[in-house]
């Protein structure tokens, strides 16, 4: 791989690609008036499959399109990226991410499912992988069933964990003795030696190594759970990235050539998205949640108090997995978001039609409302799964003092707290391509139920993967483009936590800004939208009634400056958790009122 020494001050033109399963997306970043801006984008079909079977062909096509739009020649006569930039030719650096061919797929093993196996799973997901299965001593499967499962899977690598350093060795060795005879077979190539990462009890490493023969390549890294109280994921994540390049990418068609072209290691797409979200949260000192909803899966990323988590909900998506969403949520749950005259029978027919033709896009208002109703449930379920996974370490023995007697905190609590969430970022077809920004904001608020003051944004053209890998070589450029071009701010949502009777007072509000001056009181069950443009800010004071909380505790007032956006300022007194009326007619009326308040569909 070419790893040139790069001087950040001399980088003016950056080409970045994301090789997805179906399309390769290229963006061009240039220095304009002293600031880095995303100036052009292009895309071409990914060419990792037959008959082309060379990923660089798709990259060249996408780069050529961007070059034509920008009036800059980026690809030479030999089909290679021109570097460095000179005049109207070439770019200074070229970087790429990849999720082509199904992305990075990992099998995880551990001794205890909730402890070492959970830590190993967090390491794999954080590196951008899809976890095919988690094998552990207490997963309720018999040894022969576990061996059968390992034989059925075709992972790109195996990550093993188990035991604390200096602790008992026999359990982790027992797991290794299950994996070794099962001889897990890799996805690519018959001559390919399966990479196995051992990140468990360091004193058991030699015994684990003895159980494997030459059919695997064993890498030993620091324990992901050296003690019960501490998690150490970085060494395992770094090793996963290294092996992804050395083994997995090297066997994918055309990737050897692509690796020679890039100026930074190629990252798995979800890993790069997590990387930029972490950088933003760290730089601004905020808590952030990002979601990417696709046709088959939904990824949720979160950073709370500096702790990063990612989950992949493999069966929640808007096309190939739409039936799973409806089965898991239940038809009544989907139907409650539909304010039009529609019954369960019609809903089922629409689901079946979508299953037959998964790539169709809505052509009528009914079809649009139906899809957005399903998306609310898909996002809600994906976020629930994320909250269950993003927890404090389980199995930690806590020293409790007299002062902790009445504290409810214990190990294994979710670290996701909507009241402390500052930024919620949306991406993925149904959110990014909604005809109106108000619809994107409504889907996010209904599904994620933010509490207190929360900024809403969407990734304009799914640029976060490109910026995640760019942040590794040029953080300034990545963060500048993220702020200026990547995010479209929708506005701010202010929501009260608590429950009350519909129609009873919830909070008083005062809004003071150059373009907006409002005050009043809202009753439980209402939604209000105030126009506050993308460049505008306003001071908002909320005085909640007793039993309602907007960030300072029950009944305590909060005053904050809020950011505007393409949607504006949303005040939400529907209560948290959000509960809709059970009776269909009442529910329909309530949803119709909220739909009208936000101007979702009317013309």
UniProtKB/TrEMBL annotation:
InterPro entries the UniProt entry points to: MutL
Q: Give the protein's recorded name.
A: Methylaspartate mutase
Annotated organism of origin: Maioricimonas rarisocia
- Which Pfam families is this protein grouped with? MutL
Q: Which domain of life is it from?
A: Bacteria
